[in-house]
Amino acid sequence: MAVLSDPGRSEAVLVGVHDCVNLEKLPAVARNLVGLREALTDPAVWALPDEACTVLSRPGSAGQVLDTVRERARKARDTLLIYYAGHGLTDPHTDELSLALPDSDREREYTSLRYEYLRRAVLDPRAGVRRTVVILDVVGLAVPWRAGLVVCASSGGGVCEGGQVVADVPGRLVGVEAGDVYGEDLPGGGGQ
Q: What is the mean pLDDT of the chain?
């Protein structure tokens, strides 16, 4: 029998980067943040307390995102939900996934948030969370997110243990659950 998450012991961090200096603007991302926050705090949906749903729209730095995630991971006792919407970037040398920030540039990979750092923030040893869900609503990846998944899947459990990662890559649903990588082409998608 599935046990539902306790919203009173859960936390959410919603990160959206809709207006980048060097990348295509994504106006829908700002609306998505508002709509998702409303849904998560709606008593008919999840009833997450307002103070447990942190929204970072156009965060100023990777540190701001990572510090917030680490703080919320330490506070949550049931479920930690991380949502990122924006550009996904692939390091041209390592194929590692990075998440764009407002000043990110494809040719300067150090200007983005490496997904590995986000994973480490979620895995903070002082975090007492039972379940973690990471949702990446990313656009602009030059290659499927396979490389980012391998980091998670090969990390000895990591985020995947008791949680899952889902990436919305155009035309393809890709995810990791309990360490298993899966993917499927979506109808009309053009996935790899």
A: 79
**What is the helix, strand, coil percentage profile of the chain, to 5?**
30, 30, 40
CB 111 within 8 A of CB 105: yes
User: Which residue has 């969370």 as its token pair?
Assistant: 129
pLDDT at res. 139: 86
The residue length of the chain stands at 192
Establish how many alpha carbons lie within 13 A of residue 177's alpha carbon, considering only the half-sphere containing its beta carbon: 6
Per-residue pLDDT band at 10 (split at 50, 70, 90)? very high
User: Which amino acid is present at 147?
Assistant: A
How much is the pTM? 0.79
Task: Give 11's strand partners.
Answer: 80
Average pLDDT of the segment spanning 136-157: 48
In contact, 166 and 137? CB cutoff 8 Å:
no
